[in-house]
Amino acid sequence: MSSAPDLVTTGPDQLVPVARVALREFTVPAPAQTEHHAAVRPYLRTDPVRGWLVGVSDGERWGWWGPVDATVARPVTDLLAAAFPRLPAQVDPADFARRLRRATRHAHTGLLAVSVGAAELALWDLMAKRVGLPVWQLLAPVAVTDRVPAYATCFGVRDSGPQVASVMDSVADTYAVQKWDPMILGPELVDVTTGFLRRHGPGRLAVDFHGAWHPDRVRAACTPVVGGLAWVEEPCHPDEVEQAQAGEFGTAHAAGEHCYGVADAAQLRAGRVDVWQPDAVFCGGLMSLRTLVRAAAHAGARCAPHGGGLLPALHLAAIGERIEAVELHLLLELRRCAHFAELPVPIGAGTHTAALPVPTAPGWGGDLRMDLVDV
């Protein structure tokens, strides 16, 4: 894949007028069961989708990002006021997150960094909708690819051995790699897991330990499948990634969703992390994500961004940033997209290939559903 272009140098034509910010709490029905991959339908949540949207307006149009939690949405107004005391203001999207992070003490990390990310992503949505283009086309006139590889995450599937084996086999018909919780290495399911690897071959399963296990326990749990996993994810707590040793888990070490800014790349380099997984929301927005993707390439690591920032990752991959694959959460992603009028990309029941098309609608993925358009 060719190297990606830099953002066009900003000037008066690239500045975006920001006149208002809005925080929108919403509740919409759960996506229909039939919209999901057939393998996971028995495990779906049917409760309404609730969350918050962060909106930025130029006075006529709105750009949005969401859903986020209330704890992420509520600080946005104060962050914006600290960086831009008077509205309307002319805002440089390439420098917007940096301004927000530096105008408020401690906004460079933790939940405030996530709030910065939500605001910055809403601004890019606004900028793109002002000119009727997808976000990626603000960065490059032509996409270098029209499809981006994806792997499937199966969190939320909890059942007995035969049912889990059936889900694994069905998902494997579409996705080269699928990710599960550590339960698949537990005594009740480890035979299911080893059986799957015998049928389908190594490198088809990944396991996410969520940074909650001691590394010694991770190594012990992986012993029955040594050499068979695609990667182990967060085998160390995010505070201790730099203590990892190259190759100590017998397979690729994946981490990075808890990067809250570009400085956290140093920790991934120190821990010799093989697969970097930054999230555009967590790390402070599109520009931070792009910097981390490039830092992964410079470190000789693979990059598969975390699924909470699926859409920004797709837009960067479209222009040639070195993203190996994106994460598609089979039970959660349709809920994450429930606020859109139409799905940004086909990710449900009709998806028969593990490559997602690049979004083409204006902004991140098009307009809000009509019952949310009232600000």
Structural class: alpha/beta
Describe the largest sheet: 9 strands, mixed
CATH topology of the largest domain: TIM Barrel
Number of strands: 14
Q: Kindly state the percentage of residues in helix.
A: 25-40%
CATH level 1 class label of the largest domain: Alpha Beta
Assigned CATH superfamily of the largest domain:
Enolase-like C-terminal domain
Q: Please name the CATH architecture of the largest domain.
A: Alpha-Beta Barrel
Percent strand: 15-25%
User: How many helical elements?
Assistant: 12
Write a structural description:
This protein has 375 residues and is an alpha/beta fold. It folds into 2 domains: 16-135, 2-Layer Sandwich (Enolase-like, domain 1), CATH 3.30.390; 139-372, Enolase-like C-terminal domain (TIM Barrel). 29% of the residues lie in helices and 17% in strands. The strands form 3 sheets. Strands 6, 7, 8, 9, 10, 11, 12, 13 and 14 form a 9-stranded mixed beta sheet that branches. Helix 9 (265-270) links the parallel strand 10 (253-255) and strand 11. The model is unreliable at 1-12 (pLDDT under 50).
